[in-house]
Inverse folding.
């Protein structure tokens, strides 16, 4: 994330996170630090992984005090090692203490997603299939989590409901069928928008192809069904498969030949990367 992106799109989210953690004052810090004093603290990785969110980590401290300085020895996307010194933060010790948890929450969460995504994307290496995230993100964390997916080597599916047409089972039920849903979407949506439809069996695949869907998502189908679906589609639409895809089971999907595999696990199940601020001292 660049400076403009941070300022325009995420500052208000970071401020809300800080307000959540400091509703009136940091009573512990104020008890032991009655006045300003300059200090520094080390940013240390405690687990191997892929780092993501350094600009957000830095921005937390800047929003508390513009005079805070963050020196980084790595960049987003770098592989980091257990025990590695990744940077230092300099400033008012009260700011370093009060901003620590929020800054680390962002960095740990984003780095965890990047690390998990990187490990899953590696399993697709050599294939034509791209790894996508989903909208299964933490409320008010989507911009951070989807960015972390990209850092880890994945790709973003639509950002939100305004970003594209994806006709899922309940939309199809509301419209009265696959063909009717696609017809209505083509009539309503701007012509520049692709229309994706989620299907659960081969009859729905045939109906989606005949109705002119741009992308067909094969949801929770068996490997054999997906292989037959690819044969039926025969290049007339892009293909995506989804449904409880994780690092442990994605291997069964790599040879099918779909264009995309989407996995909610990239954002909803990635463990954090263990990172700490240590060795705080006055300077």
């Amino acid at each position: 994330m660049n400076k403009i992106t941070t300022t325009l799109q995420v500052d208000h989210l970071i401020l809300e996170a800080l307000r959540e953690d400091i509703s009136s004052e940091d009573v512990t810090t104020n008890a032991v630090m009655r006045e300003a004093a300059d200090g520094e603290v080390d940013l240390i990785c405690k687990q191997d992984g892929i780092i993501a969110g350094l600009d957000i980590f830095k921005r937390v401290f800047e929003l508390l005090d513009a005079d805070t300085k963050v020196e980084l020895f790595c960049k987003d996307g770098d592989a980091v090692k257990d025990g590695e010194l990744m940077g230092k933060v300099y400033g008012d010790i009260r700011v370093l203490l009060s901003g620590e948890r929020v800054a680390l929450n962002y960095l740990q969460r984003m780095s965890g997603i990047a690390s998990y995504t990187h490990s899953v994307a590696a399993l697709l290496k050599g294939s034509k299939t791209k790894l996508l995230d989903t909208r299964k993100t933490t409320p008010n964390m989507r911009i951070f989590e989807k960015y972390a997916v990209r850092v880890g080597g994945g790709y973003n599916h639509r950002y939100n409901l305004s970003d594209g047409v994806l006709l899922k089972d309940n939309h199809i039920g509301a419209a009265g069928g696959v063909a009717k849903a696609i017809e209505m979407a083509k009539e309503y949506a701007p012509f520049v928008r692709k229309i994706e439809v989620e299907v659960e069996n081969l009859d729905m695949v045939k109906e989606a192809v005949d109705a002119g869907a741009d992308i067909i998502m094969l949801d929770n189908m068996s490997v054999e069904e997906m292989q037959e679906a690819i044969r039926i589609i025969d290049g007339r639409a892009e293909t995506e498969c989804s449904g409880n895809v994780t690092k442990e089971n994605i291997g069964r999907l790599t040879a099918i030949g779909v264009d995309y595999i989407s996995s909610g696990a990239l954002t909803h199940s990635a463990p954090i990367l263990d990172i700490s601020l240590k060795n705080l001292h006055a300077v």
